[in-house]
User: Fold this.
Amino acid sequence: ETGVTQTPRHLVMGMTNKKSLKCEQHLGHNAMYWYKQSAKKPLELMFVYNFKEQTENNSVPSRFSPECPNSSHLFLHLHTLQPEDSALYLCASSQDEDSYEQYFGPGTRLTVT
Amino acid sequence: GEDVEQSLFLSVREGDSSVINCTYTDSSSTYLYWYKQEPGAGLQLLTYIFSNMDMKQDQRLTVLLNKKDKHLSLRIADTQTGDSAIYFCAERDRKLIFGQGTELSVKP
Assistant:
């Protein structure tokens, strides 16, 4: 596999469920990102990890919990979400967080019922 | 705060040129980008321009930067139906700040 992959591609969950989104990059990069994309709104940066350390948390509610066990994998653990959390969640990676080029995965379409 | 603005829609005929415009507020931006998002896919980097450049050309794509007016544009020559997508402008100082995207519709 090449590039940035995300699983699952689609997820429907109830407000009381717990689920996790997974991102994997095969590019040898050291920085990984979670973004939220809502319809007709700019992409919102959620979290940044650089060499497995979290360097940015953009005031994200605690019902979203990221985990970066190594430079190739990034997770987003979800619990007690709200319907307004329904969106496309995009993962990206770059050589490091100062690198000018980010590579994006295809995203996970999340629907909270 | 930092802000990037784009118009939401653009419709052109196949073979015409498309021009997608973007304005930004952060004067300390180092790089400015254009990303393309096709339906069901993530963002694909199309091109970028360093802030000390005025223009960059890459095959059918021309990027113009007016740093004084904080205005960035993307021109697509000979627009094809395969160019139909959402185009995002982004600027970077410490992190990437995206606009809300312009949906380009190409009619045959």
Summary: Chain B is about 0% helix and 60% strand. The interface with chain A takes residues 4, 8, 30-31, 35, 40-45, 48, 88, 92, 95-101 of chain B (CB under 8 Å).
